[in-house]
């Protein structure tokens, strides 16, 4: 049994106030990915465990971030349709099991 609170859907806007994300359970219950490559902490949304609605434009090409060991991590970035600010990313071009939300880019609206 899950608590009522964990079943709540939370909605988030971009800093420009455009609605961009709804996720259940609310992100307060979700694990975090430590800031490493980007310097930003991100929220881990497992697609098989969470309901996620994204209203944004996803880059067709990857942004490659270099790890300390020289290998690269590929980010497929979701951007706000109004102001183009990045607010989330996947680590695979298709069928990514996780989507990562950039916490600092989002404002909770409900
Ligand atoms: Zn925006």
From TrEMBL:
Native source organism of the sequence: Myxozyma melibiosi
Domain of life, source organism: Eukaryota
Name of the protein described by the UniProt record: STEEP1 domain-containing protein
PANTHER family: STING ER EXIT PROTEIN, UPF0428 PROTEIN CXORF56
Native organism taxonomy: Eukaryota, Fungi, Dikarya, Ascomycota, Saccharomycotina
Entries under Pfam families matching the protein: STEEP1
Domain STEEP1 as annotated: residue spans: 6-108
Signal peptide: none
Segments crossing the lipid bilayer: none
Annotated family: Belongs to the STEEP1 family.
């Amino acid at each position: 049994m899950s608590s009522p609170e964990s079943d709540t859907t939370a909605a988030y806007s971009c800093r420009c106030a455009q609605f961009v994300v709804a996720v259940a359970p609310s992100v307060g219950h979700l694990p975090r990915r430590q800031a490493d490559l980007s310097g930003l902490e991100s929220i881990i949304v497992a697609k098989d465990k969470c309901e996620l609605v994204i209203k944004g434009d996803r880059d067709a090409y990857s942004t490659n971030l270099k790890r300390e060991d020289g290998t690269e991590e590929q980010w497929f970035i979701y951007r706000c349709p109004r102001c183009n600010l990045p607010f989330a990313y996947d680590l695979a071009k298709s069928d990514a099991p996780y989507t990562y939300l950039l916490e600092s880019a989002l404002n909770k609206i409900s």
